[in-house]
Write a structure and sequence with these properties.
mainly alpha
């Protein structure tokens, strides 16, 4: 029981951290809240998937800021990037690489994002990876830190 109480407390702590994030859309907020509810019910794979969906929706929105999308258009001239819907036509992996190539994120951030995407893929396409509560809490916490980091970039 003590183990369960600790993880419940960590979910509450994670919810408090999530509440500190500013400027998320209703969709992003809903998806991240869904991830937290999944954790509360021991649904760790779906929690990874919902948290990533929230995070990457944020990344797409963040990228649409005029100066950022201009850099992306220069870097990926063959991509049609006129509105947010166009961003969904590009794989998450390729989009992360384009952010790096555009100078919008560092190589270190790109590698971290690719790693987080890989964890999401392991959960969405269940194979041998079976995340624990600790794995999942750490994953969601890392995504929230990445959102906070990107929000701090002007």
């Amino acid at each position: 029981m003590a183990k369960r109480e600790k993880s419940t407390h960590r979910v509450i702590t994670l919810e408090e951290s999530f509440a500190k994030l500013a400027g998320l859309s209703l969709k992003q907020d809903d998806l991240m809240s869904e991830a937290l509810r999944c954790i509360e019910h021991s649904l760790y794979r779906p929690a990874h998937v919902a948290a990533w969906a929230s995070f990457f929706d944020f990344v797409h929105e963040w990228s649409m800021e005029p100066a950022r999308i201009a850099k992306l258009r220069i870097t990926r001239q063959n991509w049609a990037l006129t509105d947010r819907a166009d961003l969904r036509l590009v794989t998450d992996f390729a989009f992360i690489e384009a952010l790096k190539a555009s100078g919008l994120i560092t190589n270190t951030v790109m590698k971290a994002m690719h790693g987080l995407l890989n964890k999401r893929n392991e959960c969405a396409h269940a194979d041998e990876y079976d995340p624990s509560v600790n794995d999942t809490l750490g994953y969601v916490d890392e995504l929230m830190k990445r959102i906070s980091y990107m929000q701090s970039k002007v």
